[in-house]
Design goal:
The structure holds two protein chains of two kinds. By secondary structure, chain A is α+β, with helices and mostly antiparallel strands. Chain A contains three helices and six strands, in the order βαβαββββα. Chain A folds into two domains: 55 residues, no CATH class; 38 residues, no CATH class. In chain A, α1 links the parallel β1 and β2. Chain A is globular, with a radius of gyration of 14 Å. Chain A starts with a strand and ends with a helix. By secondary structure, chain B is mainly alpha-helical. Chain B has four helices and three strands, in the order αααββαβ. In chain B, β1 and β2 form a beta hairpin. In chain B, α1 packs parallel to α3. Chain B is rod-shaped and about 80 Å long. Classes of the chains: A alpha+beta, B mainly alpha. At the A-B interface, β1, α1, β2, α2 and β3 of A face α4 and β3 of B. β1 of chain A pairs parallel with β3 of chain B.
Chain lengths: 93, 144
């Protein structure tokens, strides 16, 4: 299972984040929120200076690009539970 | 003596804000409990008119505590104001394709993420050489 993070942050911002946090998985940039819109998870004016950003969402996608698990928190302070996602990932083996 | 205990009751409120990092509903519960202690504390202090100093300090702490109550409640409301995700891809549905820049500016597509890595990338040293069983797309707010 390969994690991939996506946000509106520019590549250099994401690079700094990856460096500081020690992340080695891909972090992709969607600065105009085009992909975020296509996934219907836009948070209009949700960022500082009222920038459009993504609302938090996770999708476990199999090799056929089908969603096998997803999580849409209703509270930005509550993060997805890793055990729920891993249980779904194990079922793909 | 009672005034000190009453003032102590006011301080119960300062517990509320740090807990916001944990479970939101628990923080709301703490806010309510703190407000109850605040009221009890005020009642005690004002029932003892001879402790003048306690009254003034108690009022100051009450104002601070009520401001924290407001912040706590506001925080609870604001962080839950997220748009609905009912139109987003659900279990069993196919996700849209995409091609986005990685941290080096190189375009990366969903197909590439799902395929085996043809060569190890120096910017992504942990890339598997076999095709992954699945990809976990983590959309986050950004502005870290």
């Amino acid at each position: 299972m390969r994690p991939v993070a996506i946000s509106v942050d520019e590549p250099d911002v994401s690079r700094d984040l990856a460096k500081k946090a020690g992340y080695t998985f891909p972090i992709l940039s969607d600065p105009d929120a085009g992909v975020i819109r296509r996934y219907h998870i836009l948070h209009p004016k949700g960022g500082p200076d009222e920038h459009d950003i993504a609302r938090p969402a996770e999708f476990l996608v199999d090799s056929s690009k089908i969603v096998r698990w997803c999580n849409f928190t209703e509270d930005v302070r509550v993060r997805a539970r890793a055990d729920e996602m891993l249980a779904a990932a194990r079922q793909l083996r | 003596m009672f005034a000190i205990v009453a003032l102590g009751c006011n301080a119960a409120f300062f517990v509320s804000l740090p807990f916001q990092q944990a479970i939101p509903w628990l923080s709301l519960l703490f806010t309510v409990v703190a407000l109850i202690f605040l009221a009890l504390g005020l009642k005690r202090v004002f029932s003892q008119p001879e402790v003048y100093r306690g009254k003034v300090l108690s009022i100051v702490l009450t104002v601070i505590a009520l401001l924290l109550a407001g912040l706590s409640a506001l925080g609870f409301v604001v962080t839950r104001k997220l748009p609905s995700a009912t139109a987003a891809p659900q279990i069993g549905q196919k996700v849209p394709d995409f091609t986005l820049a990685d941290t080096t500016g190189k375009p990366v597509s969903l197909d590439q993420l799902l395929a085996a890595s043809s060569e190890p990338s120096s910017s992504e040293p942990s890339f598997e050489s076999r095709a992954p069983k699945a990809v976990l797309l983590i959309f986050y707010r950004g502005y870290w």
